[in-house]
Task: inverse folding
């Protein structure tokens, strides 16, 4: 999968921003951004594992259309009573391994691209020092830089991101299946060798297309949201705190809109002819079993919160303009009184 799933992406819990680093700026995160380890990651994993059980376990997958936040907590409580903390965090070691390997490769790719860009800048400076016959495009304008594909090196970073996500995908697939197949007495490596022998190497990339599509949709929606906030703020002065508030609300709604694609990727990871996993299912039939009702409820709730935040920011800007107008006009003149003789 492109990025490790968040609770909102896996269908358990309210939507939220995909990473805390995105709150540091209104700008959309770079493709090769690294998500550093945090306590939040450990708190999220029980919800992710619970969602895998709700969507992919053979005993409960038929009721996945009615899954909700309460369903996830019921699953966590049930596993905790039966297996303890180790059962709640089953597969976490593979999940963290996927995060570490992916982030190390992203960091190396980012440094390589920066080294190439530095060498190219030195070459461009030497060429600029030579007398030229005129012409040339010149540096991109501010309008051109607003679009992500026009940013320097953005396309190379985007291609490197999806290549790295594809390379690391078998690890997150093993982490997802480990939640379902735990207890058979075999190691994860033995399971992966069995999957490769019985179904071929392609079985280790089951659900990759849906996961990459989900990541691409998140990327597009983040940049569209960034553009809309910048466009709306061009004619008015919006504080950074208000911009972050709007981005947080918008990202919640975006997470809801793109979550069904991520659901499909998670379910397809657990579909196989191998005993213990879900039987392969046609895509139209799979789509019909998704929790559309819960998604609709979340969209209404968080869409309403976003609309309320937008309205509050509008009122704040209007009051600020009225106050500035009164300050420019100066204090009201008091009526003139004739002094007594």
Result:
């Amino acid at each position: 999968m492109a990025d490790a799933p968040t609770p909102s992406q896996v269908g358990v819990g309210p939507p939220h921003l995909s990473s805390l680093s995105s709150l540091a700026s209104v700008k959309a995160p770079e493709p090769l951004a690294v998500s550093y380890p945090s306590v939040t990651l450990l708190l999220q994993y029980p919800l992710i594992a619970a969602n895998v059980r709700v969507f992919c376990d053979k005993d409960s997958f038929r009721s996945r259309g009615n899954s909700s936040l309460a369903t996830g907590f019921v699953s966590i409580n049930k596993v905790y009573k039966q297996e303890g903390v180790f059962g709640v965090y089953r597969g976490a070691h593979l999940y963290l391994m996927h995060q570490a390997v992916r982030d190390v490769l992203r960091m190396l790719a980012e440094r390589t691209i920066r080294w190439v860009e530095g060498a190219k800048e030195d070459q461009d400076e030497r060429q600029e020092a030579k007398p030229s016959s005129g012409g040339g495009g010149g540096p991109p304008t501010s309008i051109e830089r607003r679009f992500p594909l026009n940013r320097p090196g953005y396309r190379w970073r985007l291609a490197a991101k999806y290549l790295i996500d594809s390379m690391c995908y078998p690890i997150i697939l093993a982490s997802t299946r480990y939640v379902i197949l735990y207890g058979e007495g075999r190691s994860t490596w033995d399971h992966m060798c069995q999957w490769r022998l019985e179904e071929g190497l392609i079985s280790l990339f089951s659900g990759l297309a849906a996961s990459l599509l989900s990541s691409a949709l998140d990327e597009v929606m983040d940049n569209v949201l960034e553009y809309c906030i910048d466009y709306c703020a061009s004619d008015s002065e919006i504080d950074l705190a208000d911009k972050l508030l709007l981005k947080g609300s918008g990202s919640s709604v975006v997470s809801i809109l793109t979550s069904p694609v991520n659901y499909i990727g998670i379910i397809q990871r657990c579909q196989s002819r191998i005993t213990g996993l879900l039987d392969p299912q046609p895509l139209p039939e799979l789509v019909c079993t998704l929790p559309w009702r819960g998604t609709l409820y979340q969209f209404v709730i968080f869409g309403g919160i976003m609309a309320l935040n937008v309205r509050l920011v509008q009122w704040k800007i209007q009051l600020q303009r009225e106050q500035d107008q009164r300050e420019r006009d100066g204090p009201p003149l008091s009526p003139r009184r004739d002094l007594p003789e």
Notes: The domain at 33-122+153-326 is CATH 1.50.40.10 (Mitochondrial carrier fold).
